[in-house]
Amino acid sequence: MNYDSLKLGNQLCFPLYACSKEIIRKYKPFLDPLGLTYTQYIALMALWEEDNLTVKALGERLYLDSGTLTPLLKKMEGQKLIKRIRSSEDERNVYIKLTEDGNLLKDKAAAVPEQIGRCFSLSNEEVLFLHQTLHKILKQI
């Protein structure tokens, strides 16, 4: 039997996993001064783009389940970055709304993408290709 398909170096998932983990680690020195984890940062980016999302919609945008998202949102609420507001029409729906502090953090975080970009030697074309390819994969999952 040929076991080449089981070699770690032949897996698509492994370099994606390792890159993701290492890229997220690169964010730490830029996010620590803002008091944010990477997951909090991406949640804020989604809310800066479209505020007042339901927990469900935010989870779908971030590819996070409620078991991961709920404690994250509780912590962010404790940091006074967001408010969780239960719908008066349907109590099962909880909306996430940025606070003034959450909105103000956007200006401080504006430099993070450029700072991260300087960590890698990729051309604009390579970044665009990678971005498009990864989104194509996500749409198929």
**Biggest sheet: strand arrangement:** 1-3-2
Which CATH top level class of one domain fits? Mainly Alpha
In angstroms, what separates the terminal alpha carbons? 30 Å
Count of alpha/pi helices: 7
Q: How would you spell out the order of helices and strands?
A: HHEHHEEHHH
CATH superfamily of one domain: Winged helix-like DNA-binding domain superfamily/Winged helix DNA-binding domain
Helix amount: 55-70%
The whole-angstrom Rg is: 18 Å
Largest sheet: 3 strands, antiparallel
Gross morphology = globular
Number of strands: 3
Summarize model confidence as the mean pLDDT. Answer: 95
The CATH topology of one domain turns out to be Arc Repressor Mutant, subunit A
- In terms of DSSP E residues, the strand content is 5-15%
Overall description:
The chain is mainly alpha-helical. It has a domain of 78 residues: Arc Repressor Mutant, subunit A, CATH 1.10.10.10. Helix content is 60%, strand content 9%. The chain is built from seven helices and three strands. A three-stranded antiparallel beta sheet has the order 1-3-2. Strand 2 and strand 3 form a beta hairpin. The longest helix has 19 residues. The chain is globular and about 60 Å long. GO terms for molecular function: DNA binding; DNA-binding transcription factor activity. Keywords: Cytoplasm, DNA-binding, Transcription, Transcription regulation. Its main location: cytoplasm.
